[in-house]
């Protein structure tokens, strides 16, 4: 004779919920140097950008880019394309820090198609 299955009154135990990923610990803040600057280096392919950032004094914020010819230009004049200007300013817009910092970027050795914007790509990792 075939055995009959009898339904149970209690549903089977549900699988345990997956654990939420643990949040990463924040790194300790790196203090500015004795003149108030924070330094960082960004690299992409063969391009290098050395960036100095400090809080704007007396509300005088700026974003200057020093090209390999050692001429300093505001970011608005350095980049011919609006897309490149927007990419360079995107981190400040995203963090609501526009107009709060003085930024100087020294760029060198870009690629053949877009030599200047490659070093200041906002998607690169800035190493302290």
Helix content: 10-25%
Q: Compute the number of strand runs.
A: 6
Order of helices and strands: EEEEHHEE
* Coarse structural class: alpha+beta
Question: Which SSEs are present, and which pair or pack?
Answer:
Blueprint: E1 38-44, E2 47-55, E3 62-66, E4 72-74, H1 75-78, H2 82-94, E5 101-108, E6 126-127
Parallel strand pairs: 3-5
Antiparallel strand pairs: 1-2, 1-6, 2-5, 3-4
How would you describe this structure to a colleague?
The chain is of the alpha+beta class and 128 residues long. The protein has 2 helices and 6 strands, in the order ββββααββ. The protein has helices at residues 75-78, 82-94; strands spanning 38-44, 47-55, 62-66, 72-74, 101-108, 126-127. A 6-stranded mixed β-sheet has the order 4-3-5-2-1-6. Strand 1 (38-44) and strand 2 form a beta hairpin. The radius of gyration is 26 Å and the shape is elongated. The termini are far apart.
Summarize the structure.
The chain is an alpha+beta fold.
């Amino acid at each position: 004779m075939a055995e009959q299955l009898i339904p149970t009154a209690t549903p089977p135990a549900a699988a345990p919920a997956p654990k939420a990923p643990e949040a990463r610990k924040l790194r300790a803040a790196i203090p500015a140097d004795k003149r108030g600057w924070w330094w960082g280096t960004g690299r992409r392919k063969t391009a290098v950008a050395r960036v100095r950032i400090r809080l704007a004094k007396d509300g005088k914020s700026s974003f200057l880019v020093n090209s390999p010819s050692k001429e300093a230009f505001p970011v608005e004049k350095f980049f011919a394309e609006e897309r490149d200007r927007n990419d360079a300013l995107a981190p400040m817009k995203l963090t609501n820090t526009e107009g709060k910092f003085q930024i100087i970027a020294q760029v060198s050795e870009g690629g053949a198609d877009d030599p200047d914007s490659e070093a200041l790509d906002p998607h690169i990792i800035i190493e302290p």
